[in-house]
Amino acid sequence: AEQVRQTKRIWLFPNHYLGIKLKGAGIEEIARDRFYRSLQLILILDIILIIGVVIVYRNIRREMELARMKNDFVSNVSHELRTPLSVIKSYTEALQNQVAEDDLETRGHFLSVIDSETDRLAGIVSNLLDLSRIEAGKFKMAMSEFSLESLIKEIIPLYRSPRNKINILFEYETGIPAVTADEGKIKEVVINLLTNSIKFSPGGGTITIHLAQRNGSALCSISDTGIGIPKNKLNKIFDKFYRVDNSDTYEIEGTGLGLPIVKHIIEAHGGAITVDSSLGKGSVFTFTLPIKGGQQ
Questions:
Q1: Of 224, 22, 261, 53, whose CA–CA distance to 139 is shortest?
Q2: CB 186 within 8 A of CB 154
Q3: What is the pTM of this model?
Q4: Are 257 and 129 in contact (CB under 8 A)?
Q5: Beta strand 205-214 with 166-172: parallel, antiparallel or unpaired?
Q6: What is the DSSP-derived secondary structure letter of residue 177?
Q7: Is 54 helix (H, G, I), strand (E, B) or coil?
Q8: Using one digit for the tens of pLDDT, what is the confidence trace for 129-144?
Q9: CA-CA distances (angstroms) from residue 192 to 46, 68, 87, 265, 275?
């Protein structure tokens, strides 16, 4: 109902009054309504502010983690480069000054070590160059048709050695069609995964490479019986610069670049790579590549 809130006598008409009537809510109700609206707005702004703080915190934390990983990477790479160079230098000096020219057995052994460390050094430099090309968007591939079975058969003898106490098995289905891919890059993938399995099996064991055909793709898995990877680390192992850090892997060398590069190569070919692992039991890395023409 309408109520008169204020009246005042009109001086020109002394017998008349001017009154103010408010329709609807009164002043108290309007003030109360505005108070609650303001309170709701403040709460909404507080929620937005909290969400913003959380997002900024997570971004800063991610940047700090990336910076830490890059620092670790620089330290690891420095160590990885210095170690083979030191070995090459020391063995070269020994050949020059300590080993007799007619001691062919010792000279052959020393030259074998120098050759091995040179290959290791070349692999580190190759990984750094690949990472640089990936970051710059200049990672190019030379596609061709080839047999993945034949490629794996060429690689395995290079890594069979009584020194590492590793038994390498190759199981494969016959008649798998050729894949269309960059043969050099896929060779790099297989070598990286195979050397990782050897490296993370310091006590020896068995590595099994399995090749099959599934849903129009060649499926290759490399499994080992090594130290394995903790379940809570599996989602990070394909991140750049990341290395699994625990007491079992502390002495194992590496730059943290191999697996990210492997993942990039496989995905650039339209394939996929996955990993499954149990700590203390071993790991299985599996990748797929489309078969030429998508044959089933």
A1: 261
A2: no
A3: 0.63
A4: no
A5: parallel
A6: P
A7: helix
A8: 877 777 777 778 889 9
A9: 50, 25, 22, 12, 14
